């Protein structure tokens, strides 16, 4: 902020007049203004001593503790040219070992402590500039006198010059504030408490769009007042910057100006456009099949209020205070996803067919860690292949609305019973364990699927997977096999199968399994097989 050349002289004169006024007001008013006060602390026993000073810094604000043992009274005042704060303590002696090293910081250039007269110890804070403050008597540790300096106004300006301006007020630390709106003429008044303006009053030019000017002045010794001259009334909100607690942001409340439904073959999307950033808080009600999105600090445009949406799929309505609610019907078997443009002025709610919504599918990439599984002649390790295919399959199933859990997501060893425990605890709909086969005879090849012979649902799952995978890979099929010996199909509390996607010991199948194309084909076949299974599931 650019300050007039004579700002120091005007500021010093203002503080001198304030000091003259305070000297006639008495202790109570002085304590309120922070420029004069007195207090008494009863010692627990022993001699009255100023033991030392401690400095504290909290988010850009500076404080000091004057450690005093015993009875004392005090008075305080500010002096200009040079700027300094003086605190006179009557009663305590000065500890000869007291040190003022390391007390400088922020607006304090240094601290001096000395015996002023027989009854008074004087503490002087040399300041970079005159600064408001507060003094508070403390009876709890650390006992004595607490000094809190005001925060300092650092800058005021416009964050952007867009049609929805954002004004910032930056201070050296967090501040409390109060807002008020005045009419004829239109003004937004913001009072900042415990803040000092280090120069004279100033005026910040407006942006020729919403604000004509911003007037900044020291309203009293503890309060800065900002008056925003407004060209036209607009709803606005004042909030603390999430990334800087010392910065306040004043934003005009954006309007929702467009709401349009675009149907698609697999669902559709609702496009919402605003004059500013749109935030969304979605809440889905499964009983009604409705998705509700609360958009705070937003108004409906006059056109949308008048015309309405005219759509049975969705409705938009304005709620108090300054909140727009969007209601969108989500058809059964569909899922939703919300995205924003980079400037967040456009929000898209996409509905997509999700036939596996509500299904919990457990994928078990076989082996892992110290257990590498089979090793092909060319160096292909089964544990790595199993995980790659499982991850590909997971992405496809999630796109269809399924909740997918992997028993392992990296190269770690898991005991077979641990894998089953993970699936049972998750309450999975099915468990699919993915493997690759090995045989000493390198001519042996083909796909296999294993299940427990007494589990009807597992047999149905195996048949659905076999049909779908074979239709895509055209590979030799060794059959659906049953055994009571495998831990996963036996101990799982849901339909469970082991899928062997080929023999890595066979040269031709090893080459196929190494290609991304074949891995993708296997994942597609398994995904479609699971989808087919859930159309007519047979429970175990």
Structure description:
With 540 residues, this protein is an alpha+beta fold. The protein has 4 domains: 143 residues, Immunoglobulin-like, CATH 2.60.40; 101 residues, Immunoglobulin-like (Sandwich), CATH 2.60.40.3500; 99 residues, Immunoglobulin-like (Sandwich), CATH 2.60.40.3500; 176 residues, Aminopeptidase, CATH 3.40.630. Helices cover 20% and strands 42% of the residues. It is built from 9 helices and 34 strands. The strands form 7 sheets. Strands 30-29-31-34-32-33 form a 6-stranded mixed sheet, with helices on both faces. A 5-stranded mixed sheet has the order 5-1-2-9-8. A 5-stranded mixed sheet has the order 14-10-11-19-18, with no helix packed on it. Strand 6 and strand 7 form a beta hairpin. The longest helix is centred in the C-terminal third of the chain and has 20 residues. The chain is elongated and about 105 Å long. The protein starts with 6 loop residues before the first helix and ends in a 5-residue tail after the last helix. The N terminus is likely disordered.
Structural class of the helix and strand makeup?
alpha+beta
What's the number of extended β-strand segments? 34
- CATH topology grouping of the largest domain: Aminopeptidase
What kind of sheet is the major sheet? 6 strands, mixed
Name the overall outline: elongated
Report low-confidence residues grouped into runs of 5 or more.
1-45
Radius of gyration: 37 Å
Can you say what the CATH homologous superfamily of the largest domain is?
A: Zn-dependent exopeptidases
The N- and C-terminal alpha carbons lie at a distance of: 75 Å
Overall tally of domains = 4
Q: Mean pLDDT, rounded to whole units?
A: 86
CATH structural architecture of the largest domain:
3-Layer(aba) Sandwich
- For the biggest β-sheet, the strand order reads 30-29-31-34-32-33
Number of helices: 9
Instruction: Please bin the fraction of helical residues.
Output: 10-25%
CATH C-level label of the largest domain? Alpha Beta
Hey, roughly how much beta strand do the residues contain?
35-45%
